[in-house]
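::Encoded backbone::
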Amino acid sequence: MKQNVYIAGVGMTRFGKHIDRGLKSLTIEAIDQALKDAGIAAGDLQAAYMGNAAAGTIVGQVCVPGEVALREMGIGRIPVVNIENACASASTAFNQACTLVTAGLYDVVLATGAEKLYHQDKLKTFSVFTGAVDVENYDGVVQQVLDRAGAAGMQLDMDGAGAKRSVFMDIYAAMALEHMSRYGTTQGQFAAVSAKNSYHGSLNPRAQYREALTVEQVLAAPEIAYPLTLPMCSPIGDGAAAVVLVSERKARQLGLVNPVKVASSVLRSGWDPVEGLSIAETCAREAYEEAGVGPEDLSCIELHDASAPSELIYYEQLGLCAKGEGGRFVEEGHSRLGGRVPVNTSGGLLRKGHPIGATGVAQIVELTEQLRGQAGNRQVDGARVALAENGGGYINGDAAALVVSILTR
């Protein structure tokens, strides 16, 4: 929907392997930063939307992860809504927080995403991803993925899916094979996405991985599920991010000068479309219309590159280029810093990391800093309009949930 919300403060932990820290500790760090950035006290918060996907599985904290973190900070009384929506959990929390402010119900709302994914039992971690499909029809999901690859003229070996790797890597491999068959996209073009994001991540002190890779290094890395090699797959991680959202009236009271505005934020669940549009295309079209902009107006983008092929395909679905031209788009440098529209300047999920319940708000943190001119070595010159896209889950060939938000300065 069309939004009228302003971002007063942002905060984020470094993403990575935080074995010695609990979920509360990470959550509190991000919220503290956001409150200080906004220049407000915890007591000014009127509501909180808390995104998390895996706490019940990984740390055993079910039902009230948001409340336990906030109470540790001395924050109570306010409405606290815990949001679980697969990899779109945090972006859903952000969308709902924005909507309540736009509706005039609150003036100051917190949106947070936090996650712990590392566990000594890797099967527990992989089970989180397996649970993001229809578990009562898991065999049917596997067959759909195999059929998708088969229709592209390739056989996909799913031995080890869900046990040695996330089943989503097989889903993304099938999507990649389909794109290669239909448009002639090459494995090297997928590798170019990973190499580009590794360069961006090398400039981000909060990224999980800071090493810059070449296309050749990406291609030479261990294979996960053809055509995906290890750097083409997002890593698991721990981390948290937070955003303080305020109404126009509150922004004036705080004296915010030229603040970042949330112009639109669209949340949809997947469906079986008859018109052939994906959930991402539908959300993007709505978000553009409500914000009064188009893809040609975008200064920078953070999108859901859970795999390198995902980013390349989203170029096309977000309208950055025509269908089938995503490979050429990345090869020609259009999505790199200095290019036409830099994508995933944070390093993306591939290099910044992907603590799934935190990812959506982390995207907003990066874009806010870009629009404020605070992104340091990875700053996009003259950034004025930014887009965040974050999807999660998989049902019948598409994302189960997806959010597209547009920020302006």
About this structure: The chain has a mean pLDDT of 96. The domain at 2-120+236-408 is CATH 3.40.47.10 (Peroxisomal Thiolase; Chain A, domain 1). The first strand starts at residue 2 and ends at 12.
